[in-house]
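Deliverable D5.2: sample structural annotation.
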Amino acid sequence: MPERSRASSAHISPSAHYTGYVWYRHRLAEPAFVTAFGRFVHKLLWPVTWGARVGFGLDIEAFLLQRHLQIDAQLTAAIEQGGVRQVVEIACGLSPRGRRFCARYPQLRYVEADLPAMAARKRLLLHGEGWLGGEHQVRAVDILAEQGRHSLAALFAELDRRQPVLVITEGLVNYFPLALIEGFWSRLATELRGFAGATYLTELYPDLREHPRYRQLRWGVELIGRLTRGSYPLHYRDHGEIVAGFQRCGFATVQVFDPSADTLSLGLPPARVPGLVRVIQAQV
């Protein structure tokens, strides 16, 4: 992996352990997705997350579930109504989504991708449980690599460009400065134009200064940055900036979802405060 990519990306993986345990706690993942480190970090952070929830109504696990289930809902619709049969989940970490959707839709080709070390760990986990094989695969990718065997071009080379494809990134975007992540989005849009149809699903945390808990949100963002050994920049200010940003990167159609406004259909309790996370569905 190029030195620039290693320096920029290496801090992401620890958070995958935490979210992996959250998915398990909420019955979205089997025990195999739980790591000792994820369980330890969850226990370590419990007093902080409890205080944020009780004192300010900021429920970190609720935000994680909102984004995860909203992406699931959009993916389900794309498969059942849009005829999508190819899915690529970049920065898959310990996400159980590939396992769940391959079990639900046996005809689905699902490619999970992450940095080489995390991809190797995910491949070992899935293979060990007998879940890997056939149309469910794991590949190594570096979103900052512009060429080579870990580039986006290499990742998409094995897919059928005559068929539509859907790409997911979850828990990735806000670990990078806007300029870097927009570079990734631009390269992704270029790759997706080669398919018969293409959809990109992701989430981001915009800089919602009008949010009633903005000051506490900024404190939480700084805490996340320290825990993950990197920065956690917030991108864009509002709906309009989000749409304009994705269009600059080459996406023609952009929809912005606020999962906290649709908790009932997602099977979640009503949100206590306005949502912090947005789920983006973009098409070239």
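Annotation notes: The longest strand covers residues 198-204. The chain has a mean pLDDT of 88.
The annotation will be released with the project's public dataset once the embargo ends.
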